[in-house]
Amino acid sequence: MTLRPFETRCIAGRLGFAIVLAVAVTSHPARAQAEASCAASPEAAARGYNYILGTQAIGGPYQHTKGNRLIEQAENVRGMGSNLLKISLAQGAAPNYGLQEAARKARSTLEYLQASPAIQQALDKDFTYYQAWVHSFTGANWRDGVNMTEARQYYDEMYALTAWLLERYSGTGKVFMLGNWEGDWLLLGRQNRELDPSPTAVDGMIAWMKIRQLAVDNARAAVPHKDVGVYHYIEANLVKKAVEGRPSIAHSVLREVNPDLVSYSAYEAIKASPKPDLESIRQPLTQTLAYLEGQLAPKPGLLFARRVFIGEYGYHADKSKPLTVKQQYMKSRFVMQVAIELDLPFALIWQMYNNEYAEDGTSKEMSLIDESGRKRALYHLHQQYFQTMQGFVAQSCRDTGAPPSREAFEKKALQVLNGLGFEKMQALGEAPAG
Q1: Structure confidence by residue, pLDDT tens digits, 220-255
Q2: Does residue 353 contact residue 59 with C-beta atoms inside 8 Å?
Q3: Among the four given CATH numbers 3.40.640.10, 3.20.20.80, 3.30.1120.10, 3.30.465.10, the one describing domain 6-371
Q4: pTM to 2 decimals?
Q5: CA 352, CA 411: separation in Å to the nearest integer?
Q6: Could you tell me which of 381, 390, 397 has the C-alpha nearest to residue 332?
Q7: Is residue 158 a contact partner of residue 135, using CB atoms and an 8 Å limit?
């Protein structure tokens, strides 16, 4: 693949360098094909509609078939009714999918993808929306600053991946969002919220993210494509620190980069709720998401009305204590309701398969399908929601020739969620696995 002309030069300033490309950066966002195909094929339009809610297929330590772990989870996500697949293209997640050998040999994310038929098969499935953690296979290390060689490596890696996606999926209506795992932990280099990252790490993160955004921008501008979109997002997870003015993704990085989208790994906000109460979840989420959005400068031509979404949320439970399972269900449903009320692009529960365990090996039940293969109440909550809302969208197409308005969608979605009580979904989950 031949890249567009690339020039680097050192300049004075906080970063010490900039990257300049000889190409005009314009936006060519993909558009979901729901409206265009609504009258012609209501069912196809419903399959491509954005239902906001979804889950993750990052991986867990178990599987229930003899096939590839990624494909198994992707098929479970699609079988649930979701048209969004969130995976990891990061080197560290390769064992989750049985792709260690491909990851070991790869020198870029695209090399890893192309050496992994399972990843390509997952991307080829009939999902409309994709989110992926994308870090780097280059060996460059932004944490100690980014020199010009590393800048070129980061840029080439992200540009090549974006260009490949635009070329391969042109005309499909697919939307890809490339981002990172919880950025504040990356910035700190450890999971200790009491610490502050070093100024060098902050500068390195800003440089890395600017390069990634520029590579996506320029690939979108340079690569011929239609009806496909690739966007860059940054994920934050310690926003309370930002509000206090402390170095963090939200305080230090977002304004400098102005990414296409921002993901919020929302545990610090949603776990402020001591009981399953809608308002105690709505209030911190609303405030935090508004703060994140306030760090972004306007950027025309993007796909979604709002640019901040919930990339990860969830609660622990213990199946030996039934009340915790019910509270997990109710709190999760409240997060889903708030996401719809706020017209967020997405809200993704963690996750299809559990990867959280206590020291004694007890599962913390952060799954839609558990270790025994049982589809839990949260799985059935999502499945029933998708089934009903897809029928609603299809019927709107048949009746009016157009998808439902945002207001009509919100009203129906909230009505559906409110009607999906825990006891009914739990009864479905207690049916024999099969």
Answers
A1: 999 999 999 999 999 999 999 999 999 999 999 999
A2: yes
A3: 3.20.20.80
A4: 0.92
A5: 27
A6: 381
A7: no
